[in-house]
Amino acid sequence: MRKFFFVLTICILAFTSIKAIEINKVEPPSWWTGMNSPSLQLMLYGNDISNAKFISENTNIKVVKINKAESPNYLFVDLKLSAKLKAGTYNFKIVKGSEEIVIKYSFETRRENSGKRESFGPEDVVYLLMPDRFVNGDKSNDDNPQVNEKSSKSHPYGRHGGDIQGMINSLDYLNELGISAIWATPLLFDNESVASYHGYACADYYKIDPRFGTNELYREYVSLAKDKGIKVIMDMVPNHSGLSHWWMKDLPFGDWIHIFPKYTQSNFSMSTHADIHASSNDLERCITGWFDSSMPDMNLTNPFLNRYFTQNAIWWVEWADLSGIRVDTYPYSDKNAISSWTKNILREYPKLNIVGECWFSSPQEIAYWEGASKIKDGYSSNLTSVMDFPLQEAINNAFMQSSQPNWGEGMHKIYRSLSLDFVYGNPYNILIFGDNHDTHRISETLKGDVAKMKMFITLLSTMRGTPQIYYGTEIMLKTSDGKLGHGEERLDMPDFNSTSTSQKEVYNYTKKILNWRRESEVIHKGNLIHYWPYDNLYVYFRILDNEMVMVAINNNDRMLSVDWGKYSDSIRGKKSGTEIISGKKISTEEELIIQPQSSYIISFN
């Protein structure tokens, strides 16, 4: 008999039979009283249980329906929970002929105002890290007897040993840097035999990978982060699981995943969702083809699977006390099914920020997936935020070009990307970034140029949206060959004491700006006014009531003078300000010279 982690236990009563009932899984493993939705669906997995009866021994827990799966080894039980239900452990009977077992199932008390929890947003700076490549805080869990892949620190696609304890040990470092939210790539159990380090091929949606730690340690990490004013965002992947997921040996339904006569990969043509000329075959291939040969494509149109993932997301938010969700590969699922998943999570947590990865090069295509989008065809994803890939692309291209670029090049690229913000419902809540775990590192793109890295940090910290920094960007972490693949670019985070003088210079610059930003309400909430770049000088303002910050980025190889008159409609008669990095006093009645490859952030009085 297998014992679940957690409060869930299975007790066999003293009945004699040839073969006792076996229940190997009950998911979710626990739940809460006082949820907005009174409904709960339990998935039971055990040997030949499809004809078993499920009986609640408490009148406040009503069995509404028992649903059989196509496999005889599953039951999906619909429960309705009374508002009178108190926290505690309750008995459920499983009866099959003369056999009977009792499942003890726990309902916990929700945290106060859990449903009204605040989330992350433009007031925060999000730090994206890959746990395996960040910090190894517990070397004793680098290998584990229950996993298929052993550690291989020298292999770029191997397990390197980073873990949750390392993340806990780094909380002071991140807090001092000015970070107020952490997004870690998936920490759930990935049991693939190759490249399991990235975590995107889940083997158990209710279990932290033992090489990272335990469920309890993850909850402790979230609590300790909150104590330091740092929010935690969980990376969720409803689009696909891993080949090593336990249900792959016995699927509940034939349409639980998308199955083909032979391996069929997605065409990755996400535009087919909105393309009025798209063929139905292309759309079908996009949403049913597998993302990778090790990642079975989940069919979210199956109502039991959709409910499973909805409750799984709610369970982790509630149990770990999360502050947000990032959703991987959002447009690779049926758009109505994934929208329903998002909507049902928000019914429990109306203020929760759920940011979707919708990787397109144009704002129009990305805006389609923003829940509040102004691009309408009757569809809403219900996402509260999306990731600004067009701006990321513009940033990388713009800072590579210095001197006097051609029309539309250089800093014009950033301006033109932002000029399309009218397609978004709320561009101020979009996640902005220069790099992440799926792109080249911006420090590679900018060839480790300290001046350009500082200009990038200036822009990222003061632009509209919620800034996200990829681990190591603050110290210009980069590979020797930026053209290498993901495994090579996902480097181990070095010890800070081993960094070079130029790396420390970028770190100190980043730290100063982010800590200033932490208290700058005008950056969190202010409107953005920007000006067409001349001579590769990009100037913009953030304005909130009587507060104003001016940002001037000179991505030119020569010094430039600021023409105050050009910006008079934003300056509105203000005479003096302070440059926040140097502390230098600035007067609009005196000439301001900006050195080549440098930037100013001026807070006006």
Question: What gross morphology would you assign?
Answer: elongated
Q: Segments where pLDDT lies below 50 for 5+ residues?
A: 1-18
Q: How many distinct beta strands? A: 27
Gyration radius over CA:
26 Å
Can you give the helix content as a percent range? 10-25%
The strand line-up of the biggest sheet is: 17-16-15-14-11-10-19-18
Query: Could you tell me how far the N terminus lies from the C terminus, measured between alpha carbons in angstroms?
Result: 70 Å
CATH class assignment of the domain at 9-111: Mainly Beta
Question: Your description of this structure?
Answer:
- Helices cover about 25% and strands about 25% of the residues.
- With about 600 residues, the protein is α/β, with parallel strands linked by helices.
- Among the domains are: about 10-110, Immunoglobulin-like (Sandwich); about 525-605, Sandwich (Immunoglobulin-like), CATH 2.60.40.1180.
- The protein has an eight-stranded parallel beta sheet.
- It is elongated, with a radius of gyration of 26 Å.
- The model is unreliable at about 1-20 (pLDDT under 50).
Give a quick set of tags describing it.
27 strands, Immunoglobulin-like, 605 residues, 6-stranded antiparallel beta sheet, alpha/beta, 8-stranded parallel beta sheet, disordered N terminus
